[in-house]
Specification:
495 residues; alpha/beta; Rossmann fold; Dihydrodipicolinate Reductase, domain 2; 2 domains; nine-stranded mixed β-sheet; six-stranded parallel β-sheet; globular
Amino acid sequence: MNRTPSPVDPCDFVIFGGTGDLAARKLLPALYLRDRDGQLTGATRIIGVAKAGLDDAGYRNTVRAGLARHVEPDLLDSDVVDRFLSRLRFVSVDLTEPSDYAAIGDVLCSPGGRAGHDIRVFYLACAPALFGPICGSLGAQGLVTESSRVVLEKPIGRDLASAQQINEAVGAVFAEHQIFRIDHYLGKESVQQLLVTRFGNTWLEPLWNSSRIDHVQITAAESLGVGARGDYYDQSGALRDMLQNHLLQVLCLVAMEPPTHVNRESVRDEKRKVLEALEPLTAEQTRRDTVTGQYGPGLIGGEVVGSYREEVADPGSRTETFVAVKAHIRNWRWAGVPFYLRTGKRMSQRFSEIVVQFKPVPLPMFPGIEGTSEPNRLIISLQPDEAIRLEMTAKEPGSGGRLRPVSLALNYTEAFPERSPDAYERLLMDVVRGDPTLFMRRDEVEAAWAWAEPILRHWQDADRVPRTYPAGTDGPVDAATLIERDGRRWHGGAA
């Protein structure tokens, strides 16, 4: 049964960086698809802001071409495309020049804008260094109303001090309930399903602790290189780009305590507690329990690809494109349970997953039957396919049947064949509704940096050089050693 989504209130959606890659690939296609499904009302407008010198017609032509590239052909409807394009306006602005922002106000207050009444969403799809100046200029021009929201893309800062500086600058203009720090991983259906799996099923909660769980793995692997993001990525690296935000947010949902109920703040309260309970890594623990790598030339899909250093401006770059970390949470539920986190580019395949491995049975019960009893695993696949699998041991039919692992699986595409909104579609509508549940709060961001920043500092103090790994593999050999020395192995990948 296909449920029709509820329309959201009229709004002006202002995209800073409206001609950039994120807007073209994700934001504008997501808004188009929400328009297609009837969630955008007739009065909603989308205003692109950039230093591009376009007029409205030129911007519409640019967006039309982008939709053709980034939206599946069977989802493109010419009437809806025309309706969507009619919502678009463009304002050419130098984002570093405060006086230019008056032009944005002219559009917001033009007929159809109803200044001070309609919701205004300011989406900052631009460099984090501009977050504070943009918000300051919006405030100085009187464009921030009580019903305004601002959306901040990651990364929020390069370290704790810069994150605090950005939060202070944005917070001087917008109240905390108006600030939406987006992490698209939290909008994935399977990530949200994790909460339902944990807290909506009575059989699982008694097992969700150190007495039954052996360890947890969280992986975000990409087969692509840095591509056009080389300039940004070489100043960031895998820890800042992925682990400090995406992977830690997923860890929080796996490890958090049950909230009294799921509402706008209770989930974020419990996530913050997990981040604050992460055991800080000393210099020695960082040396032993973290791995960094950088991809070299290799083979992916039968095609020879170059090294990371060939894709960035600095031929001697020491930026990590792979990181693996063994982490612990200091509380009663998770005492002694390691969390293995890894992320990397140019790996053997693209996949993101959570693996919760339970402890093995305490005593073999079937000595006369061939095969072995494997530990149970709950595997939550985030991409490319969203699914949940419970791996358990079963006996093959017949009197001489052997033991082997089998899966009980829920594949979302098969179980729910109707198309559902993707992560950005879902999160953008939550912004318009003013629902911050799936967004990061300031204290979460700063707690994550407080744990991650010492790792970066220990790497720098030790003058660590990332280990080279061939593109198309599962990262440096040290990553396998990290988990195998504990008698465990990574799930997924080429192996």
